[in-house]
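How a chain folds remains the central question behind the approach discussed here. For one protein, we set the task of working out the structure tokens from the amino acid sequence alone. The sequence in question and its structure tokens are set out directly beneath this paragraph.

_____
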Amino acid sequence: RHIVIWAQGKIWKIDVRTGEREQIPFRAKVEQTLTEPVRFTQDVAPDSFDVKMLRWVNVSPDGRRVVYNALGKLWVKELPNGTPKRLTDDEDRFELYPTWSPDGRTIAYVTWNDEETGAVWTVRSDGKRRKRLTTKPGHYVEPSFSPDGKQVVYRRTGGDALRGQLWGRDRGIYLVSADGGAPRLVTENGTRPRFNKAGDRIFLQAFEQGKRALVSVDLNGHHRFVHLTSDNATEIVPSPDERWVAIHERYKVHVAPFPKPGQTVAIGPNASAYPMAQVSRDAGYNLHWSSDSKRLYWSLGPELFHRDLVETFAWVGGEGVELKAAPEEEGLHIGFRADAYEPSGTIALVGARVITMRGDEVLENATVVVERNRVTAVGPAAEVSVPRGAKVIDVAGKTIIPGIIDAHAHVRTGSSGITPQTHWAYYANLMFGVTTLHDPSSDTEMA
């Protein structure tokens, strides 16, 4: 005769025939621990800011320079204390996934432009002689040179809801001459391609029965072999001499000998069949080796870290070499400060209804004055003077409110590391008054 529902924060009993409702008394004893929130003072509109997220950090074969992506462009820095400089003067495209040629004279990378889509390029390390290797539009990532520098392997991936799905077919791993020409499909499966030391096979990351795996195929995509599998690794990176392997698992970086028993080996920090050492105290990204395979590099935010094998395993350095018992805690700061964008001029919005957020105050026929990037005056039209030379915009009949902050918004930031130049989801949020948002589902680099 009754149905019980929840409504208005209460529990109700509803008579099915009459619709009459009766509140069901309900009490609960709850103990809740409230923790003081962590708060940091923020400069709302600084003139400059620290560039903290460096992506695809890659040290040159001679160890003297580092290239990375920041603010959508590629930068090269002389190590240890040089000033980062733009690699190219290309203002039309995002520049992504830089990698050095074996001789350190050339850098391969990919680009993205919303109109022309993506491409694979090479450029000299001094920024000269830029060359486009691919002619077909598409979504390109992860280029890497062959040991002799004559070929580039890369992955062609698909689009997404932000970049669109056009030119998202023909996915797979491709080879192309470093001088350009017709690309050749190697295999449709795998990610993060890189050549083996002989140049006759390509290492790939893949999934085998739900596990991350390091596999290899020949240059025709045949004779596939699964070398290593891992339950939790996000990166598995063999050294150039194939004697060592680095993995990133559960936000830690580990190194180990590269086991080659002729069959698949499960690898991980808890394995006991071979030695493995944790070398990073904190998370580490962009794992890569020195050209002589004696040093592992990784990055975290604006810092570059490294660990030498002689400091990690006793049998590598011999007697007299001091081992590091603790993982690396401090890296070399390789970032920079950039000027913040600041518009010029003054705008006066006149005639609007303004919700000021001073209690429940609402002003009719108000004026809002914005000078450069700061709101300098809000008040009734009779009390706020419009500065001389200001651009006046009549917004009568409109309502102006402070920007809304959405602390939990799934707007996406792109896939395969590629963010579109025009992000329609950001514009859609802005249209509805959201000026600040946080997407908790984005990964560390794309958040």
Summary: The first helix runs from residue 314 to 317. Helices lie at 314-317, 424-431. The chain is about 5% helix and 45% strand. The longest strand covers residues 346-355.
